[in-house]
Design brief:
Layout: H1 9-25, H2 39-44, H3 53-61, H4 65-71, H5 73-89, H6 98-101, H7 107-120
Length: 134
């Protein structure tokens, strides 16, 4: 494969490295951090499906998986699956993986999961309150 087909990895790698550096350097749990707050939560007081994602990634780059899961379980569980689906879309996975990835590649499934996660994490009862960040 010619080198130019891999050029897109340079900005992606730089962007990822910058993100990891920012998450290792700044704590989103401390006031005055450079990360933007969730606009949806600021306006409504409700948690969107992405609330806690920055804090989850911060915990993840500090190797605290349980804290990351407590901040945004959907992101922590869904990101590796999303990575596999991206590799599948780019035809970079063996053919035998298609049989078990095809059912979870449905965008309607993910739209439903994200919506359901957003609703359930705002319910005040156990076990749903465990889905709220923190």
């Amino acid at each position: 494969m010619p080198a130019r087909h891999w050029l897109w990895l340079v900005p992606v790698g730089l962007f990822g490295a910058a993100g990891i550096w920012a998450l290792r350097t700044f704590d989103p749990n401390v006031a005055g951090n450079p990360f933007l707050p969730c606009v949806f939560h600021s306006l409504t007081g409700l948690y969107c499906p992405g609330c806690g994602a920055t804090r989850a990634l911060h915990a993840l780059v500090h190797f605290d998986l349980l804290r990351a899961l407590s901040m945004n379980a959907l992101l922590i569980v869904g990101a590796p699956i999303g990575g596999l689906l991206a590799l599948r879309a780019l035809h970079k996975l063996p053919a035998w993986t298609d049989a078990w990835l095809r059912p979870i590649a449905n965008p309607w499934l993910w739209a439903g999961l994200v919506t359901l996660f957003g609703v359930l994490r705002n319910l005040p009862w156990l076990p749903f309150s465990w889905l709220a960040p923190g």
